[in-house]
Request: fold
Amino acid sequence: MFDLTKITRENIKALKPYSSARDEYEGEAGVFLDANENPFDNGFNRYPDPMQRELKEKLSEQKGVKPERIFIGNGSDEAIDLLFRCFCEPGKSNVIVCPPTYGMYEVSAAINDVEVKSVALLPEVFQLDVERIKKAINENTRMIFICSPNNPTGNLISEKAIISLLDAFNGIVVVDEAYVDFSNTESFVSRLVQFGNLVVLQTFSKALGLAGLRVGLAFASPEIISLFNKVKAPYNVNVFSQQEALKVLERKDKSKELIAEIITEREKLKERLNELNFVEKVYESEANFLLLKAQNANEVYQFLIAKKIVVRNRSRIMLCENCLRITIGKPEENIELLTVLKTYENEKSIVY
Ligand SMILES: *Cc1c(COP(=O)(O)O)cnc(C)c1O
Reply:
């Protein structure tokens, strides 16, 4: 049985959080003289709502999740760091990650002096090796990180495999859904009530187009969210970011349109890339990028750089030999990419 108290660090259980002026008086008032703010209005002279109530209400409506199950952070990277600080004992606990995947889990583990056990995804299909993950779990394992759709491979991870880990593991299973809006699947958010050990991460950075504002989300049990709220910086999401995030949610139809356009571009680009003779494979993607296997990825990468096009060279990453990760751009950018790759293809085929 999963028991949150068994995996929560003692110092966090005992922590008495900082109580800000806005925490102590939450109501409306005409005169606020409690936070040492500058009284002259310039749009940003007041501290932000520490609990982002308005934004959580709107998210709650749209995602079908109660506000007390929502954490909003300075990017989802903040939620990842909070997971380590709440549940991992430095120098003692370990976590499991499944490479090739998002690099931040490992960096956050290292910052918090937490051991990382790597259980590679199955080659080419990039699915979880559930049996090996289960064998890697020991009494100090606190979390398993799963990214779906996975970065950098682009595929969805089997729901059955994730559920099998949620059932079997008495620690936290983190399902990172940064790219879920580009996929054809239901979010794991709908399973929160069923699994007390599930934490779902989402973000405003990708599909919603607010990478520059740093707004990330975690969905979990109210108990886990309370721990995050205790540990987080009091004013972790600034006023402007909260306002703009709310506006984006109010423009839902516009976001949907742009997402649909990116998906159409993805499928078009995939087809065109597959026609190039130096491309060995373009993997199926449910995200806003494509993973491409080339005959000589480093050479292609350098050729693109020389033409001022930057993609992500993933060829040194395990199971991604000769792979490039290409973000779906605007239609004209994707055409430019294809034109340059066509030039590369032509130059390669000239026999001297
Ligand atoms: C981009 C990305 C994020 C988003 O991080 P933010 O801090 O919210 O910008 C999270 N997880 C994965 C797998 C990503 O690729």
Notes: The longest helix spans residues 252-274. The chain has 13 helices and eleven strands.
